[in-house]
């Protein structure tokens, strides 16, 4: 099934829910947590497996958008460059050039670092932001100890 067909099958509220998730740059899991619903329930709304989205879920989603859209845009702009550049910046801040060490600090495998360096893949915005916060925490903790 192609993407346009699945979009056509979504109700207005279901499509709005998908659009809010995408605008905020959230993974399905993170969005479900923020909406205080289970992942299967969110999936049933965003893939059109239910007739409608409850009003309380839509209210929460719209509130999340209103409160977080500016921050989401700032995050999107911050990471609007090749993944290899982001990695170089993190490696410089952390004082490492070793893929294995960088991978260990970020909590990923070396092969992932390799794919990111080649700009083959990149994490979603919420993961990028999480990795960036990890780097900042390590850098700040290192400064405090010196």
UniProtKB/TrEMBL annotation:
<protein>
    <submittedName>
        <fullName>Uncharacterized protein</fullName>
    </submittedName>
</protein>
């Amino acid at each position: 099934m192609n993407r346009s067909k699945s979009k056509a099958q979504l109700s207005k509220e279901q499509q709005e829910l998908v659009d809010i998730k995408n605008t905020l740059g959230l993974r399905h899991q993170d969005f479900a947590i923020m909406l205080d619903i289970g992942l299967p329930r969110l999936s049933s709304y965003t893939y059109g497996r239910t007739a409608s989205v409850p009003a309380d879920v839509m209210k929460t989603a719209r509130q999340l958008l209103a409160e977080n859209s500016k921050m989401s845009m700032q995050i999107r702009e911050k990471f609007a460059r090749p993944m290899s550049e982001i990695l170089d910046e993190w490696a410089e801040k952390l004082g490492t050039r070793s893929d294995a060490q960088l991978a260990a600090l970020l909590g990923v495998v070396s092969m992932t670092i390799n794919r990111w360096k080649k700009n083959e893949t990149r994490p979603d915005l919420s993961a990028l932001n999480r990795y960036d916060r990890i780097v900042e925490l390590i850098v700040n903790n290192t400064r405090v100890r010196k």
